[in-house]
Amino acid sequence: MIMFPFRVGKAFLEYPNHPITIPRKYYLKLINEIYAGQGKKEAPVRIIPPKGRNLSGKIHYGVSSYGPYYQIKIIGAYPGWYLDDLQIGDVILVGLAKAGDKVNVRLVTPVEMQRMSDKL
Is 82 helix (H, G, I), strand (E, B) or coil? Predict the structure, then answer.
């Protein structure tokens, strides 16, 4: 399982695919755990947002002027309300886990984290 915090920015809120760039320090773990050692390609994922149904998505591999990168992207046109009432600067927790041949991406909001911690 890979977990990392993600600071919500303008691109995440306004772009239709709501990109989440995976931090470089997780690339080796991503390649080993999610890609089974075969990185540098796209991988389908199921995105579990704070609200509503599961969404189709992918881990996109690309190369920019900064070098190679991996991004989680939603596929299709889904309204932003699936992402709860997030604002620029909010920090969410992103979890990636492989379950058999499927990859799940869970997005946990600060409100959801608070509810989970209250149950401990």
Answer: helix
Range of the domain at 40: 2-118
Mean pLDDT by 10-residue block, N- to C-terminus, for the chain (120 residues)? 95 90 96 90 92 89 94 84 85 93 91 81
66-86: b (≥16 Cβ within 10 Å) or e: eeebbbbbbeeebeeebbbeb
Q: What is the pTM of this model?
A: 0.89
Instruction: Kindly report the CATH number assigned to the domain that includes residue 15.
Output: 2.40.330.10
Structural domain count, the chain: 1
Residue 79: the pLDDT is 66
Edge-to-edge strand ranges of the sheet holding 91-99: 2-7, 91-99, 102-108, 43-48, 55-64, 67-74, 20-21
What size, in residues, is the chain? 120
Residue 117: DSSP 8-state = H
